[in-house]
Amino acid sequence: MAPTAAEPGAPAPRHAIVGWRWAPAWILTYVALLFAPGYAEGVLTLGALTALVKLALARFNTGARLLSDPAWALTSVLFAAYWLPELVSAIDAVDPGRALREAAVDLRYLPFLWLVAAAVASPRGRRTTFGGLAIILSVWTVDALIQWVAGTSPLFFGIDALKQAISGHGMCSAAETAAADRLSGVLGPCNLKLGQVIASFSPFVLYAAGRRFGSAGWLLAAAAVGVVVVLAGSRASWITYGLVLLLSGWRLLGWKRLLGVFAIGVLTIGVLDRVSPQVHERLARTAHVVSADVEGVDNALSGRTRIWRAAWCMVGEHPVNGVGARGFREAFPACDPQPGRLTSWGEGPALHAHQLLLEVLSETGAFGLLMWLAGAALAWRAWAFADARAREASRPAMLALLVTVFPLNTHLAFYSTFWGGLTLLLAALYAGSLLAQPRSE
Question: Where found in the cell (predicted)?
């Protein structure tokens, strides 16, 4: 007897949403290569081209489909909310050529996001993608813990040795290695973003541990990831990870046990303050917030108040469409509230606003903020109208995206290649997993 459509191994019914079995490999390779941003961008670009060819061929196929219409629409809309402000900002940007180049190059994200959404269109693809991300982040966490104990990241040591053998020089310069003030892990001392990456992607690890091993597994994973985030991350990543614990832990542990988790976390930070000079320095700097003068607050925030005042100046001078995507550094000298004075971050202008809303407003203006808010509203509407099954399937991606764009925090540059690509990846994982299949009534 031939298998039915519901049986394993049965052919997909006509017009079924099945995704693409090789799509998860592109996503996982892209994330795994973040230690070498150039190679990661190459994988992204090749994935985008492959997605275009695959979707063009699928257009003439009347059988199973790669992506549902709602997932395709939401993914495209979220991309437009990110990309159209770039394009409009180029009209009278401080550096129109660069703004136009940024907009042109970022067009590759659209087919790549379709590829990401197709990767999680089927239950099998979603398990592979989410499980693979959990494994990658778990390996990076263990590697960072080894670096904390032994002083060297095994993964980065191997990568650096391979780079030395191939090109005759390492991944990072001696000056960058000497200047590293936190745990760098697999990303290396010249790309000190391990804390932010692990904090934003930690929902995939915690949900995987919770599903497989229950509350004990969640607690163990939360402790290991938390130590790495504190040692490797900026204080912004501490806030990000605190949100992850809050929003993922209460459903599994309940409020009382979750309060105990946070109490243990505070004690752990106290211990790390004693044994880690870097953690002690960041906590001591944070204590300056209680200072009565502006200089003390600015020092506590690593010069952020000076940058934010400059951002507001740009908003006032370019309220409609901003100074141009990635034009913050060119516009900063004219808006610097303390010109000629030594900055808290070293020499040179500030590179971006270090805050999502101010980055969008200063670089893309009110138009950009309206587009971002429209994208957020549509993402929320999709969640509100989705059924319980779809919400549960997409919960890790939803939480990862939510904490990454949480506005009451400081951020990396969302219009940079590194952080912009990861944020759009999370947006596509959310849209693709939430709207993978038709709503069940």
Answer: Membrane
